Amino acid sequence: MVLQLDKLNKIFNAGTPLENHVLHDISLQVSPGELVALVGASGSGKSTLLNVIGLLDVSSSGELRIQGHLTQGMSEQQRTQLRSESIGFVFQFHHLISAFSTLDNVLMPLMLRYGKPSAEQTAYGEYLLNEVGLTDYMRQPTNRLSGGQQQRVAIARALVTRPALVLADEPTGNLDTQTADEVFGLFERFNIEHQCAIVIVTHDTRLSSRCPRTIRLTDGRIVYDGASADSDGVNAHL
Ligand SMILES: Nc1ncnc2c1ncn2[C@@H]1O[C@H](COP(=O)(O)OP(=O)(O)OP(=O)(O)O)[C@@H](O)[C@H]1O
């Protein structure tokens, strides 16, 4: 199992007048190679859940295992190591470093972990940029790229460490429909070719229905976990 959550809760500002119980007894499992859409109304807790799963935030109670490793009780250093070994992130705003070349942005997670990337690692970064159709832009700074191209760089960057799990928070949120389709197609392709599990937060029902599995949150609770819409797009939960 790549991901196992058991009765996970998240309470912001616990014990204060601003207490906000955002995630309620979340239990779920994700197997290697699954493509899962995480959906729900604004404020339902999707980003909070993704941040906890991605070890960017801590839960208040319950258990979270990543590739079998129980994360509760880990030191910050252990969490950072597990995160950099196992998880790739793609956000709506891609957080690229505009002064760096496209290739150096892709190699950044490796540089942060190992220092100067090896020839093999650099070749893999180049391969990924080729896969997302950006071979010609490898040596150019990323601020010359369009929004869709920058999101492709972010996808290549998320995959460069060969993570078992990719977490994507509204990765197509700021893209036009056609570009969003293309970027989503890359997730589908990498999911099949690299067998990485992907959890993708999206408001776009066209895209969530292309994921085999949908998890829906309402007010911080899982209210649906199962097959996404059928080919007719007819499904009660959507
Ligand atoms: N750092 C924080 N401190 C206190 N409350 C927070 C914090 N972060 C999020 N929340 C609250 O948690 C709830 C869920 O927010 P979250 O961003 O996870 O929802 P979401 O489903 O991702 O929404 P959206 O689709 O709009 O991004 C909201 O009530 C929000 O105000």
From TrEMBL:
GO MF annotation terms: ATP binding; ATP hydrolysis activity; transmembrane transporter activity
Topology within the bilayer: Multi-pass membrane protein
Main location: membrane
Keyword ATP-binding part of the UniProt annotation: yes
Subcellular location: Cell inner membrane
SMART domains on file: AAA
Sorted UniProt keywords: ATP-binding, Lipoprotein, Nucleotide-binding, Transport
UniProt signal peptide: none
Any Pfam family hit: ABC_tran
One GO cellular component term: plasma membrane
Superkingdom of this protein's organism: Bacteria
Segments forming domain ABC transporter: 3-238
Family according to the record: Belongs to the ABC transporter superfamily. Macrolide exporter (TC 3.A.1.122) family.
Family matches, as PANTHER family: ABC TRANSPORTER ATP-BINDING PROTEIN MG467-RELATED, LIPOPROTEIN-RELEASING SYSTEM ATP-BINDING PROTEIN LOLD
Descriptive protein name: Lipoprotein-releasing system ATP-binding protein
Species annotation: Marinobacter antarcticus
Source organism phylogeny: Bacteria, Pseudomonadati, Pseudomonadota, Gammaproteobacteria, Pseudomonadales
